[in-house]
Structures are given as structure tokens and as C-alpha cells.
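User: Here's a structure from my thesis project, written as C-alpha cells. My advisor, Dr. K., wants to see whether a designed sequence matches the one we expressed. Can you design one independently, without my sequence as a hint?
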């Protein structure tokens, strides 16, 4: 059992899980430590985005944050190192596209991530058929693997994907890219159900969870939520403290479930 899974299972026994996302290097280099600390204050784990120039899964808010970080000179290894410099006991997951991993080298990227205190890895553009060597490298460095299941994933494939998870299963609530939405997608329930049929690991809903009420709705059918764009937009527009305040409201809402 990975350290991340052990941590999440213990937390799941007590409350709904909250995993916020932020982009490494924002709002800027000096402000990033405060942002990471604020986002982790009430989190069960933190997903740290590795800046990449072609983020296919990400909508305008996170894509703009990645571009901003890149313009500030924050590359993949710098993103890992910058996170290592911020103290904290909350597990951190590196969310990256495969291109940066390939450029660094799978084993080296995983080794560096683990050295920098990361507990898990999410690579949304790498299909299961191509992920074997990276999953092995992650396991060698004791990084949990977190796969994504889409609303359109057929049941036999859900079983294969969920079977690779060693952290949690990321249930994508809707088709399309990340971003703030007015309501939780009606697709969220069915995708969570398909995941729960084949795994006992925590299943978290992400993509389109933007408000405390949406978080409550998502957590009512799952083990918790991943929240990204709503956090990143607050960091960029209002500062880390505003993101921390927002997440405290989400945490309070989830604790009412």
C-alpha cells in the first residue's frame, strides 16, 4: 500500500476528501510558497500542476496559469524543487502531461518528484496501454499512481484503468476541459458508480466542481472532490489568502455531508 493511499483511507474513514489543485509557480515565484501553504491548510492532499505549454485537458484559467508560470521561468524540475522548499505534512501529487516526463526521463522525473516530497503522480494524457513503464518507475520511487476515468469510458476499460490505481481513482465528471461551471454534471453519478463497481479505493470527482454546494453534491455520490480552476482563479485574482478562505468554506460544506 502506498503512503498516499494509506493516508487517504484513514481520512476517508473520518470525512469526505478534499484535494485542491494549484499551478506551481503562481501567482509568481515569491508568492508560490504562500499559495501552496494556503491551499494545503484544509486539504487531504494537494495536486500541484507542472507548467506545460500545451495542456490539452485544461481550460482557460489553468492554461493561463501555466503560461504565466512558464513566462516566469518555472520549468518541470523547477516546479518540483519550488514545492520541496515549502514545508508541510499534506501529501502532494504532481499533475503533469507526459511530454515533460519524457523530456526529463521517466525514472529521473519520478526520482526527483519523490526527492522533492511528492507522494503521487497524475498524467492525464497517457493512456493505460502506454503507461506501464511510467507506472513501474513511479512504484520504484514510491509514488502513488492516480488514473482518470471519463464519463464515456466503457465498463471493461474502467476495470482495467481502476486496477492500476495505487492512490485514488479520479472520476472526471464531464466531457471537455477543466473550468468553472454553473452546476455539477449529471454524468458524475454514473461514472462514480462504474468506478465503485470495480474498486474499493477512494473515488474522487473532479472537473467542474467550482462551489461549496457543487462539492457537497459531488461528495454525496463519491468519497470527495478535486477542485482546480476555482482555486487557481482566486490565487491569480485575489491572492493566496482568498484561495485559502474559499477552501475553508468548501471544507466546512463537505463536513456537513
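Assistant: Designed independently from the structure alone:
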Amino acid at each position: 500500500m502506498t503512503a498516499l493511499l494509506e493516508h487517504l483511507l484513514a481520512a476517508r474513514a473520518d470525512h469526505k476528501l478534499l484535494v485542491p489543485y494549484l499551478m506551481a509557480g503562481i501567482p509568481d515565484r515569491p508568492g508560490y510558497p504562500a499559495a501552496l501553504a494556503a491551499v494545503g491548510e484544509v486539504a487531504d492532499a494537494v495536486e500541484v500542476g507542472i507548467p506545460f505549454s500545451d495542456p490539452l485537458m485544461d481550460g482557460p484559467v489553468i492554461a493561463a496559469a501555466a503560461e504565466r508560470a512558464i513566462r516566469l521561468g518555472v520549468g518541470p524540475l523547477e516546479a518540483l524543487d519550488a514545492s520541496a522548499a515549502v514545508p508541510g505534512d499534506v501529501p502532494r501529487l504532481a499533475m503533469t502531461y507526459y511530454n515533460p516526463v519524457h523530456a526529463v526521463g521517466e525514472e529521473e522525473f519520478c526520482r526527483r518528484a519523490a526527492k522533492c516530497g511528492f507522494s503521487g503522480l497524475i498524467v492525464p494524457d497517457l493512456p493505460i496501454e502506454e503507461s506501464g513503464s511510467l507506472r513501474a518507475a513511479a512504484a520504484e520511487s514510491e509514488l502513488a499512481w492516480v488514473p482518470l476515468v471519463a464519463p464515456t469510458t466503457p465498463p471493461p476499460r474502467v476495470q482495467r484503468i481502476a486496477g492500476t490505481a495505487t492512490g485514488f481513482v479520479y472520476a472526471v465528471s464531464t466531457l471537455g476541459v477543466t473550468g468553472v461551471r454553473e452546476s455539477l454534471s449529471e454524468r458524475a453519478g454514473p461514472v462514480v458508480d462504474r468506478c465503485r463497481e470495480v474498486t474499493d479505493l477512494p473515488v474522487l470527482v473532479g472537473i467542474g466542481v467550482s462551489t461549496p454546494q457543487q462539492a457537497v453534491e459531488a461528495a454525496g455520490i463519491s468519497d470527495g472532490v478535486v477542485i482546480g480552476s476555482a482555486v487557481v482563479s482566486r490565487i491569480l485574482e485575489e491572492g493566496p489568502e482568498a484561495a485559502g478562505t474559499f477552501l475553508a468554506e468548501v471544507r466546512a460544506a463537505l463536513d456537513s455531508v
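When you compare it with your expressed construct, this may help: The beta strands are 17-23, 46-49, 92-95, 120-122, 144-145, 148-149, 169-172, 203-206, 224-227.
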